[in-house]
Amino acid sequence: MASISNIIHSPIHSHRLPSFRLFPNRTFPANSFVLKRRSLASPLSSPLTENPTVSPSVELSHKAIGLLSSRQPLKSRSVVRLPVVKAAAADADGASDGLTSSSESFGARFPALITGFYFFMWYFLNVIFNILNKKVYNYFPYPYFVSVIHLLVGVVYCLVSWAVGLPKRAPIDKDLLLLLTPVSLCHALGHVMSNVSFAAVAVSFTHTIKALEPFFNAAASQFILGHQIPFSLWLSLAPVVLGVSMASLTELSFNWIGFVSAMISNIAFTYRSIYSKKAMTGMDSTNVYAYTSIIALLFCIPPAVMIEGPQLLQHGFKDAIAKVGLHKFLSDLFWIGMFYHLYNQLAANTLERVAPLTHAVGNVLKRVFVIGFSIVVFGNKISTQTGIGTAIAIAGVAIYSLIKANLEEQKRRAAKIPSS
Questions:
Q1: How many Å is the maximal CA-CA distance in the chain?
Q2: Pairing verdict, β 35-36 and 14-15
Q3: DSSP per-residue codes, 94-159
């Protein structure tokens, strides 16, 4: 009893168990062993430890220890903490994923807003380009050389952007090069012919003629791409053709060079839009336009040298510098090239988001802004019939856009209905 009382009054609290069944027919007496409570001072100690004050008369069975440890295996505290660490990491990952998904989902939640921003910047930069471009032609009427400058500034911009990784340059192979070559040829032809028209006639008249672009796009989409264009869309294009015809007959600045070159640019840009859409399947629009500009520049240099080279060397550069000065001449060429590249880059980004016909309609609506601003800035005088014809063409584009939007909405609704 002395040993038992010493155990009970020990500073380390312990408990006596009346019996502990190890086997069905065998029990141990009450004073055979002691189970010690784990001390708070030693958190890493085992639940089963021998009391150093236990008398020799108190024995602890090895079989009891083996049986108890088999029923209650000991676990390290580090294992218990792992789920907490993992949960905290999961919470952190979940928070970061939530932030990422919310930032990435803005464009998905508001696609119309993003597309509208592209259209706005496209219009804004195009208006600035057309006004500054026409001012340059008033003292430097060399559209082939100016076309080269436009593309050259854009190519330098692309090379610098690639060098800094904004955007990262996409690799190009032989197949993609062959696909982009006709696109670049159409881009070069349409660009040069547009500049020839800008230099020959008023900016407003050139854009009035180029309002026929939806007609050419509709024809190319049906007869080249095989897309079926509804009759209602064809009918809505009739006022556009009529309005352009009326405006052309009474245009005060009319000449055949400006008219024919603008029509050629319509056809060239139609093919560019169609084949650019195909070329975007394996590359983003920014890299597509960069490669297109580089290849188009190679197409534009030879005719510029052959057609305008001798005149530029004789008196073209001297006359321009004498009129406005070297600094303004060089700065004007740089800025028209920069605005040209930026507005065309945005046009390519917009084309990536919409169908070719929608892109063409947006291009026509852009001309409304250009025509209005050019008349105000340059004070171009237009006849009554030209004004009426331009208004009819714009109204026809509006009707076309409304009909096409309704048709696309019907297609989206039909696609949402599950097939029975």
A1: 129
A2: antiparallel
A3: HHHHHHHHHHHHHHHH-HHHHHHHHHHHHHHHHHHHHHHHHHHHHH---HHHHHHHHHHHHHHHHH
Contact 191, 220 (CB under 8 A): no
Q: What is the number of structural domains in the chain?
A: 2
Peptide bond into 11 cis (omega under 30): no
For residues 266 and 197, the answer to whether their CB atoms sit within 8 Å is: no
Same domain, 138 and 46: no
Q: What is the pLDDT along the chain (420 residues), one digit of tens a residue?
A: 444 444 444 444 444 444 444 444 444 444 444 444 444 444 444 444 444 444 444 444 444 444 444 444 544 444 444 444 444 444 444 444 444 444 456 667 777 788 888 888 988 898 899 999 999 999 999 999 999 999 999 999 999 999 998 888 988 888 888 888 998 999 999 999 999 999 998 888 888 888 787 788 888 888 877 888 888 888 888 888 888 888 877 777 788 999 999 999 999 988 887 776 666 567 787 888 899 899 999 999 999 999 999 999 999 999 999 999 999 999 999 999 999 999 888 887 887 777 766 776 776 677 778 888 888 887 777 788 888 888 888 788 778 777 877 777 777 778 777 554
Question: How far apart (Å, rounded) are the C-alpha atoms in residues 366 and 119?
Answer: 9
Classify burial at 5, counting beta carbons within 10 Å of its beta carbon; exposed 0-12, middle 13-18, buried 19 or more. exposed
- Host domain of residue 48: 2-71
Q: Is residue 57 part of a domain?
A: yes
Helix (H, G, I), strand (E, B) or coil at 14: strand
Indicate the residue type of 150.
Answer: H
Q: Which of 38, 71, 104 is the last residue of a domain?
A: 71
Helix orientation angle between 356-378 and 384-416, rounded to the nearest 10 degrees: 150
